[in-house]
Amino acid sequence: MKKKYFTLIVVPDATSKFKQLKIPYLLTRSLVVVAILLILGAIASAYYLTVTYQNMNKMITELPQIRKDTRNQKALIERYEQDITELRQMVSRLKLINAKLMLMAGVDNPSDINLGVGGVESESELASIIQGFNDQSETVILQKIDNLSKLKKDAVSQEELSQRLMEFFQDQNTLLAATPSIWPVKGWVTSGFGSRKSPFTSKRTMHSGIDIATKTGTSIKSPADGIVSFSDTKDAFGKVLVIDHGYGYTTFYGHCSKLLKKVGDKVKRGDVIANVGNTGASTGPHLHYEVRVNGVATNPMKFILDL
């Protein structure tokens, strides 16, 4: 088969001989294909560079906003960490308060009781939560913080309630400690509270306490916590000791042989404060015992629990 050529005639000038260049057809077609490919490559490169430039320009434009968003997210994470820390502190305070409340309520081992609290318990757990924020939107993070804030408010409310309950129990314990609830001395009640016939005048008179007969020198014990407000001789009652227990309660001890406490002394329930005697207007050794509530004589038997 005869080869095909393209003939290229070159004429340098009018006086020179022309020259013929024979170019094979296949080579010419190959050169055309190569030229087309180079043109397409140049176009693709130009397009790529253009798109890359646009993307870089967009990134440069958005960089301040990205930095701002990063700062905002960092601030949100720091706020979440702070809220978690405060919540853990509240939980610790609630545990302490509830343990005290349980002790006041008579629970022997409050440390064994599940107090029903929650929250992040370790630094690794907190770090895991914070790391998870990187894959979440600002809206989701804000929602979590809002939920945590609501939980904090609930914890604050529970803490305030627990504190009020503890104050109530403390006040009740103080009131119970101030209530004259035990016998000041063991013996025989020879005269009760109320109207009676006087052993000296035989007339009906008001007996503002009870008389407990026992042998001279028997220890008289304070029936409740309080402060001695009187310790001296008082008219027909002989040697007298009076204790102010607070909450309007006072107790009176008459006809004592010996007073063992002075004014201002603090006493606890069960402390020995005096000895039974027969001083003053008395027909025999006994204790005249009174309980007054806001200054009004009240039957002591209403308060005595160890009958």
UniProtKB/TrEMBL annotation:
Keyword Membrane: yes
Domain M23ase beta-sheet core per the UniProt entry, residue ranges: 206-300
Entry superkingdom: Bacteria
InterPro entries linked to this entry: Cell_wall_metabolism_enzyme, Dup_hybrid_motif, M23ase_b-sheet_dom
Keywords carried by this UniProt record: Coiled coil, Membrane, Transmembrane, Transmembrane helix
Residue ranges the record marks as coiled coil: 70-97
Membrane-crossing segments per the record: 26-49
GO MF entry, a single one: metalloendopeptidase activity
Cross-referenced Pfam families: Peptidase_M23
Protein name: Peptidase M23
Organism: Vecturithrix granuli
